[in-house]
Fold:
Amino acid sequence: MAAVSDELHGGVRAIRFADDGRIPNSRFPLLIYPDALKGRSASAAAMEALFASNNWPPRWRATVFTYHHYHSTAHEVLGVASGSALLMMGGREGEEIEIAAGQVLVIPAGMGHKRLQSSPDFEVVGGYPPGQQWDLLKGEAGERPQADLSIAAVPMPETDPVQGPGGALLTLWC
Structure:
């Protein structure tokens, strides 16, 4: 299964993935912002400031897990603070996505993701909309249908973590 659709909207890449039976994915597309910091130097502090200014509180600095997983209780933003990586998005049959410092991904609840490889200095800043707490599901037997119910109950974010109140997320996720 490759991407169901892959479009550009004002410089933001929007990719949709179908449910693969194990990973539910989402009715909302993955969003990739290629130059989220608008030419400024990438760093963890810069990503944290960007997310905080757009009401997506940054919560951690780390990497991406090396196994397929998804969150059924929260949408997630990942800002690449340093280095680069190859991620598998959309589950086992999804699509490989290259990401690098300065880029941001917004991953809707239910969308599978996994790190395939990365540079030694790869670091991301992660965050979630206010009030959302992440869980960790791996597409294992017995997770659904509860995961599907949880995903359907996750509220729409009030702002875009990169572009703020009038950002692409609010248009592309409507």
Remarks:
- The chain has one domain: 5-163.
- The domain at 5-163 is CATH 2.60.120.10 (Jelly Rolls).
- The helical segments are 44-53, 146-153, 168-172.
